[in-house]
Amino acid sequence: MSPPPWFTRVVARLRTANPYVVDTALAAFVLFAVSLQWIFPDEGDDRLTWQGWLLGAATAVPLVWRRRAPSATACAVSVATPAMAVYHAPPPDVVWGGLVVLYTLAARSPAWQRRFMLAGWLIGVTLTMQHKEGARPFEYAFHLLTVLCAYGLGTLARVQRAYTAEIEDRARRLERERAADTARAIAQERARIARDMHDVLAHAVSLMVVQAEAGPVVVRSDPERAEASFDAIAAAGRDAMGQLRRILGVLKEEQRNGTSPQPGVAALPALVRQVGESAGLRVELRATGEPYPLPPDTEVAAYRVVQEALTNTVKHAYATCATVELDWTEDALTLTVTDDGRGPAGPGGGHGLIGIRERAGVCGGSAQAGRGPDGGFRVVVRLPAADGRQAVAPGAGRSGVRRRGPG
């Protein structure tokens, strides 16, 4: 059964109250309980004197300092209680002060202190009862049980406090870990967005530069070709702006309702056609094997890898033709982009090839770039498939790439 609401509110209020106020009120309560025997004396031969009341007060007043000095308080109460019992004025029917200090030590003190004090009180209660005239056996049991109960309640309070502290510490650790995971996810997402922006801008600007350089050459001799060049520049710019809006929408945490999804393998034919028409480069797309669904991040990585490789071909290779090959196997999709140019000038391949390697690594794959066996430059990227992939139904055209068998 759960405690009543009023009790829960009282306990919560006491925990948040000033500890010195609470301890002073507790000491006053114990002093009142001790004084009851002096105010309402029982019939008998016990002498009720002011000296006896002062000894009883000595078991209550030190409780004001029970949290600031628990050991000193316990010693003072432990000396005053048997002195009052021996003096027999009044006899301690209930050792109120002793119960409080035992609870306090069990809840707050080191193990050796609380165990030593418990043993001392059990022995002291037994010995002091010998000085009480006409003590009955149930009185021994009553006093010993009250001592053990006070100690047990203090132990429960200590365990509960330790458990609560552990729960709170675990919650703080989980909160820190959650914040670290969030920061790490944000950093990874921003790195991905930076790669996407690089790929989009590099690809679009490369095509625009090629067309802008060709336009003035043919503007007088072939006006229709010059007009096509300017149309290609405008189309590349519009496509780049659309993709940038989609990417920046992630940074602004906008809802993507009504926006087109990230491009994947199905968009490769359009990409190849755009590069061929805009840059005047002869690009061929080949596919072998049976296409199947890829994870969303792998779909985007495949598209961006081909886009970056073709962008490098347009910018650096001075090539006339390029080939994009997709090899679908049971466990991976292998992308190979080959051209007949000279490749990047630097040994590291520039930021584009670094981005290709990073994209492949994020998806658990690998990337290689270098001279092709027949000259030119070749980029080979292997992207693993998801476990338990499902084959695409015939005619579904999930990849959007026409499959071509060997030969």
Question: What does this protein look like?
Answer:
This protein is an alpha+beta fold. Among the domains are: 5-135, no CATH class; 281-407, Heat Shock Protein 90, CATH 3.30.565.10. The chain has 11 helices and 5 strands, in the order αααααααααβαββαββ. The chain has helices spanning 5-16, 19-39, 50-58, 70-87, 96-108, 111-128, 137-218, 223-251, 268-279, 296-317, 350-362; strands at residues 282-288, 321-328, 332-339, 366-371, 377-384. A 5-stranded mixed sheet has the order 1-2-3-5-4, covered by helices on one side. Strand 1, helix 10 and strand 2 form a beta-alpha-beta unit. Helix 5 runs antiparallel to helix 6 (111-128). The radius of gyration is 43 Å and the shape is rod-shaped. Mean pLDDT is 75; it is low at 254-259, 388-400 and 402-407.
SSE map:
Blueprint: H1 5-16, H2 19-39, H3 50-58, H4 70-87, H5 96-108, H6 111-128, H7 137-218, H8 223-251, H9 268-279, E1 282-288, H10 296-317, E2 321-328, E3 332-339, H11 350-362, E4 366-371, E5 377-384
Parallel strand pairs: 1-2
Antiparallel strand pairs: 2-3, 3-5, 4-5
Helix pairs in contact: 3-4, 4-5, 4-6, 5-6, 5-7, 6-7, 7-8, 7-10, 9-10, 10-11
InterPro entries: DUF7134 (IPR055558), HATPase_C_sf (IPR036890), HATPase_dom (IPR003594), Sensor_HK_TwoCompSys (IPR050482), Sig_transdc_His_kin_sub3_dim/P (IPR011712)
Protein name: histidine kinase
Enzyme class: transferase
SSE class: alpha+beta
Number of strands: 5
Radius of gyration, Cα only, in angstroms? 43 Å
Largest sheet: 5 strands, mixed
Q: Estimate what percentage of residues fall within beta strands.
A: 5-15%
Element-by-element helix/strand order: HHHHHHHHHEHEEHEE
Q: How would you state the average pLDDT, rounded?
A: 75
Uncertain parts = 254-259, 388-400, 402-407
Strand order within the widest beta sheet: 1-2-3-5-4
Fraction of residues in H or I helices? 55-70%
Q: Note the total helix count.
A: 11
Q: What gross morphology would you assign?
A: rod-shaped
Distance between the termini: 80 Å
